[in-house]
Amino acid sequence: MKTWVMVRHAKSSWEFNLTDRERPLADRGVKDAILIGRELSKHNLQIDQVFSSPAKRAFDTALLMGSELGLSTENIQIEEELYDFMGKQALGFVRSLPDDLHTIMTFGHNNACTHLAQSLGNYTNANIPTATAVIFHFDVSLWSDIQQCNCTSIRPKTLR
Q1: Between the CA of residue 29 and those of 48, 55, 62, 67, 77, what are the distances in Å?
Q2: Entry pTM
Q3: Residue 12 to residues 33, 55, 110, 112, 129: CA-CA distances in angstroms?
Q4: 118 membership: H or E segment, kind and range
Q5: CATH topology classification for 2-13+21-159
Q6: Could you please report the per-residue DSSP string of 141-157?
Q7: Torsion angle, CA of 48/53/55/58, rounded to 10 degrees?
Q8: 155: exposed, middle or buried (Cβ count in 10 Å: 0-12, 13-18, 19+)
Q9: What are the C-alpha distances in Å from 114 to residues 22, 77, 108, 110, 142?
Q10: Helices 88-95 and 112-120 sit at what angle, rounded to 10 degrees?
């Protein structure tokens, strides 16, 4: 069994004139990341490794959620392939992971997250909101074999 917790970064700020990679989280993004992290902690996930896009908003979301999950934030691995807006690079990255990892968590971007949730999971909404976690449970032993499965989503709006 392979489990992938895929998270779209929390709400970012457009307040400052920064590059896309440098944009920080908005206040609501910080609150939502903590809220989703707390909710995920109730799911008893044994996360083996956390991976984040290099964008500040994704990495900061990973730090906040990881802290709520009791994960070692020093072990968040930055992966360029997760700075992906279509999903192909992110999926390729996950499919190439070592098979001794059983449960992973990634922090990335839309439209990649929505595309992956719709194509791999049974997610039917038009868009994945910011700070939403999608949990895929794949009945396979190799990451390279992941295919369609049922998924569960946890959205901030449903918890507020």
Answers
A1: 25, 14, 12, 15, 21
A2: 0.96
A3: 11, 11, 12, 17, 12
A4: helix 112-120
A5: Rossmann fold (3.40.50)
A6: SSGGG-----EEEE-HH
A7: -50
A8: buried
A9: 22, 22, 11, 6, 23
A10: 60
Query: pLDDT (tens digit, 9 = 90+) per residue, 7-55?
Result: 999 999 988 889 999 999 999 999 999 999 999 999 999 999 999 999 9
Q: Measure the CA–CA gap between 144 and 25, rounded to whole angstroms.
A: 33
Tokens at 68, concatenated: 């709520």
Domain ranges of the chain: 2-13+21-159
Scan for tokens 């206040």, then name that residue.
Answer: 27
Instruction: Tell me how crowded residue 103 is: count the other CB atoms within 10 A of its CB.
Output: 16
| Residue 122 pLDDT > 90 | no
> How far is the CA of 95 from the CAs of 5, 101, 153, in angstroms?
14, 11, 21
How many angstroms separate the Cα of 122 from the Cα of each of 5, 83, 158? 15, 23, 18
What was the pLDDT predicted at 102? 98
